[in-house]
Structure formats: C-alpha cells, structure tokens
Amino acid sequence: MRLREQMPELVGATAWLNGQKTKADLIGEKPTLIHFWSISCQLCKEAIWAINEFRDKYRDELNVIAVHMPRSKADLDLSRIKSVAAQHDMTQPIFVDGEVKLTDRFDNHYVPAYYVFDKNGLLRHYQAGGGGIRMLEKRVKRVLVEL
C-alpha cells in the first residue's frame, strides 16, 4: 500500500477472534492501527506488549486490529493462534488471514508490520520490523492530534 491510499475492506478472514470489525466500523470516528503478526514470529511476540499498550492507552481514541498472517502451514493451526493470542493478552479483534487475502490486499510481505490509518481511512504511516516502536507511537500521536 502507498501513503494516502484507502484502507482495504476487511473481508476474507478464515476466522475472527475477539469480535469482528468491518471497514465501515472503523472509518469516521477515530484512527486505526492495523498490526500484522504471526505465531511463528519471535519479533512479533516481543512487540505485542507495545501494541497492547497503544490499545489500552488510546482505547477511546484509536481502533486497534491485529491480522494474523501465516508464514508456514504450521501457522494455520487456529488453536495455536488462539493460545498465543491469549498468552500475549491480545484482546483486540484479530483477523485470521489463513488464505492471505487481506495480506495480499495490503501488499504486505513482513511481520511485524504496522499500518496507521486516519479517521477517514487513509494510510498515514507504514513500518515493518520489530524495532521502531517509538517512531510508531509518534506517528499514532500525530494522527490522533488531527482529530
């Protein structure tokens, strides 16, 4: 995805955990952070605490959605996804992308990866990799100030 592109529709999940959201649910009221992760990604697991902090700290100002992107056949085990999500206190909605349909719509190739959309659903920031949580928070704060 390119900056200022519209958020793709959140369709094609093989499952949703912790509730289901649509693009219409997310656009208009507040910005959205969409976080791609995988159960086989150690960097993802190490960064989840920061995403959970965003989720809790900005609960009234920011939507947080996780997308589980499989990197191998072993990553398709829904019971393992549920277990890892529970171990890491992931209470935000989780789009399980077992057929990589949403991953393809985002043209995403990495985990962890972070997409910050403004309240109108336009992509304002993208970053990939385990580091840079401070930069991500700066970008989230910038989009929140625009409310």
What does this structure look like?
The protein is an alpha/beta fold. It has helices at about 25, 40-55, 80-85, 100-105, 135-145; strands at about 15, 30-35, 65-70, 95, 115, 125-130. It has a six-stranded mixed sheet with strand order 1-4-3-2-5-6, covered by helices on one side. Strand 5 (about 115) and strand 6 (about 125-130) form a beta hairpin. The longest helix has 16 residues, at about 40-55. The radius of gyration is 14 Å and the shape is globular. The model has no long low-confidence stretch (mean pLDDT about 95).
Q: What is the fold's blueprint, element by element?
A:
Blueprint lengths: L14 E3 L5 H4 L5 E6 L4 H16 L5 E6 L9 H10 L6 E3 L4 H6 L6 E5 L5 E6 L4 H13 L2
Parallel strand pairs: 2-3, 3-4
Antiparallel strand pairs: 1-4, 2-5, 5-6
